[in-house]
Amino acid sequence: MNQHADMTNADPKGPDTPEERPLVGIVMGSDSDWPTMKLAAEALEEFGIPFEAKVVSAHRMPEDMIAYGREAHDRGLKVIIAGAGGAAHLPGMLASVTPLPVVGVPVPLKYLDGMDSLLSIVQMPAGVPVATVSIGGARNAGLLAVRMLSIGDNELAADLRAQLLDFAQELRKTAIRKGQ
Ligand code: RP5
C-alpha cells in the first residue's frame, strides 16, 4: 500500500498533533488510479488540508474496505473521496458503512471511456448517497471536500472565495488579450 511516495501528506509515523490528523481519506481501487486521484490530493494540498491516500479495493480487499469505511468516522476523517474504474463499487460500498459524506470519482480505463465507472458510481439507491463528480474529475472531488470542510470554517471559506475571484480575474485577462 502507499507505493507512491507522494500518495499522502500525512506523516507515515502517524500524526503527532490534532492539526496533522488527516481530515480527508482518498481511497482507490488500485495504485493505477493514482494518476487520476492525485488531482484530488493536489487540490487538498492547495488549501492545506491534511489527507491520507490508500489503495482499498472493493473486490480484491473487501474486508479491508469494510474496515476502512467502518473506522473512518471514529478516526477523525470528515470526508472520503473514493475513486475506482470499471465495475466501480468502492464509493458506494464505503457509503453503505459510514455516515461520512463520500465523493465518488469515476476513473476512466481503457474501454468504454469511463462510462462504466461513471454509471457504476452514480446510480446509488435512495438512502445511500454518493456525490459523484465527472469522469476523471478528481480535482473537483478535492475541491468539494474543501467546501464541505469550509462549513463552519470562515478562513477556509475565504480562501475558496478568493480562488473563485482569481478565476474571474484570469478570464478577464484572456478576454482583453483576445480583444487586442
Ligand atoms: C479497479 O480496476 C481499479 O479501481 C482500477 O481502476 C481498475 C484496474 O485495476 P488494476 O488492474 O490496475 O489493479 O478496481
From TrEMBL:
Pfam families noted in UniProt: AIRC (PF00731)
Pathway(s) of this molecule: Purine metabolism; IMP biosynthesis via de novo pathway; 5-amino-1-(5-phospho-D-ribosyl)imidazole-4-carboxylate from 5-amino-1-(5-phospho-D-ribosyl)imidazole (N5-CAIR route): step 2/2
Entry keyword set: Isomerase, Purine biosynthesis
Membrane-traversing stretches: none
Protein origin, superkingdom: Bacteria
Composition bias, Basic and acidic residues: 13-22
EC number: 5.4.99.18
Recorded catalytic activity of this chain's protein: 5-carboxyamino-1-(5-phospho-D-ribosyl)imidazole + H(+) = 5-amino-1-(5-phospho-D-ribosyl)imidazole-4-carboxylate
Gene Ontology annotations of biological process type: 'de novo' IMP biosynthetic process
Ranges where the record places region Disordered: 1-22
Domain PurE residue range list: 22-171
InterPro entries: PurE_ClassI, PurE_dom, PurE_prokaryotes
UniProt record similarity statement: Belongs to the AIR carboxylase family. Class I subfamily.
Name of the protein this chain belongs to: N5-carboxyaminoimidazole ribonucleotide mutase
Source taxonomy: Bacteria, Bacillati, Actinomycetota, Actinomycetes, Micrococcales
